[in-house]
Amino acid sequence: ALPILMSLRVGPDVFSSERALIEGDDTDLFFPPPGAGVAEPPKPKDVVADTIADLRARGLVYEGRLPPPKGGNLEDCEDREQTLFRSQQFGAAEARQMKKSDGSYTYFATDIAYHKSKFDRGFRNLIDVWGADHGGYVKRMQAAVKAVSDGKAALDVKLVQLVRLLRAGEPVKMSKRAGEFVTLREVVKEVGKDAVRFDMLYRKNDAVLDFDLAKVIEASRENPVFYVQYGHARGQSVFRNARAEVPDLPPSADARVQWLKGAPLDRLTDSGELSILKRLALYPRLVEAAAQAHEPHRVAFYLYELASEFHAQWTRGKDLPHLRFIMQNDPDITAARLALVQGIVTVLASGLALLGVEAPEEMR
Q: Helix H segments across the chain?
C-alpha cells in the first residue's frame, strides 16, 4: 500500500504500532528511519498500563459497574467490577470500559495511551481521521484527550464518508463476497494522481464522494482539476504570446515578477479585472482560515473560483478587443494586465502545491 500512497504524495512520516504501546518503550512507538542507530535497546514497557495508572492516581480511573445499556438485552449485559474511565467528567455521556473480562485492554484504553504519547512528545493540536461509522466514539476520545493533557491539547476528529466509484454516472460494480473490487492503484493508473488528489479534496471530508472515472478526465468546466490546471497553463500561454509584443519580458517567473513590479495597476479599471484583484487579495487570509479550520477543501473551492474568473475574462477579451491582455500600442495597459495574469498564475501554482497537485505550463 505504501508505494501507491507515496505516488499520491501521501507520505507517512512515521508508522506507529499498537503492540509497541503494550510491549515496547514509549520512545519506541515509532519505527526509526532506515540506518538509524540505536545505542541500547529500550526496555519493555507497558505504556497503556502506565497511562491507566496515571489516570487512576488523578481519580479518573476507578473500579465499578456499568449500568445495563438502554433498550439492550439484560441477559447479554455482564455485571462485574470493571476498570472504568470517568468520561462523563469531560463531557461524554458515561464511564467507559478500559479492560475486557480476560484482562486485556479495550481499544479505548490503547487509543488513550496513543494520544497521551502524542501529547508527551509535544503535540497540542491532534487530528484523527476516522470512518463515518465511528461517529459515536468522538466525544469519549475527546474527553480522554482532555484528561491525559489536563485540557492543554485539543482533538479534532475528521469523519470521512465512503467513496462511490462511478463511470459515466453508472456505479462501478464491486462485491466483497465475490472478491471483485477496484483498487486505488487501478484508479490512479486510469485517471492520474492529480485527478485523484484534487477530487478527494474538492469537498468537505464528511460529504459522500461520487468519484466518476469518466468525469475526472474530461477537458471541461465540469472537471475542477482540469479547469484549475488549465487556468495556470492558460496564464503561461499569455506570457509566451506576449513576448512578441514585449520582447523584454523575462521567461522565468521570479524575474518576471521583478520586471512587472512597476506596472501601472491603476489602469485596471474593468469590472472583471477588479473582481480578480479582489479575489487575489483574499488568498493569504483564505489559506490561514483553511489551516485553522483543518479544511483544505476551502483552498480547492477558491482555486476553482479564481480559475473561473480568469477564463471568463479571457473569453471577454476575445469578444471585446479592448479587454485583451496584450494591447498593441499601449505598453502600460499591457504591463498592468500581465501583472494581473502573473498574480493569477502565482496564486494558482501556490494553491495547487498546497493540495499536492501539479501546475502544468502547457496542456494539450
A: 2-7, 18-23, 47-57, 107-120, 138-149, 184-191, 193-201, 224-242, 253-259, 271-293, 297-319, 331-354
With contact defined as beta carbons under 8 Å apart, do 334 and 326 qualify? Answer: yes
- Cα 21 to the center of its chain, rounded Å: 27
Which residues neighbour 315 within 8 Å (Cβ) at sequence distance 6 or greater?
Answer: none
Q: Using alpha carbons only, give the angle 172, 175, 180 rounded to the nearest 5 degrees.
A: 80
Residue 44 has pLDDT above 70, yes or no: no
Strands 125-131 and 154-160: parallel
Residues facing residue 209 across a β-bridge: 163
For residues 16-25, give the mean pLDDT.
78
Q: Compute and round to an integer the Cα radius of gyration of the chain.
A: 27
Q: How far is CA 38 from CA 20, 28, 35, 84, 335, in A?
A: 16, 10, 9, 37, 59
Which residue's entry shows cell 506596472?
Answer: 263
CB 96 within 8 A of CB 153: no
CA dist 196 to 209, 211, 256, 362, Å?
11, 9, 32, 20
> Residue 60 phi/psi, 5° resolution?
-100, -10
The phi-psi region of residue 30 (left if phi > 0; otherwise alpha if psi is between -120 and 50; otherwise beta) is beta
pLDDT in tens, 133-181: 999 899 999 999 999 999 999 999 999 988 889 999 998 987 767 767 7
Which of helix, strand or coil describes residue 211? strand
What's the rounded Cα separation, in Å, for the pair 287 and 139?
28
> pLDDT tens for residues 45-56?
788 999 999 999
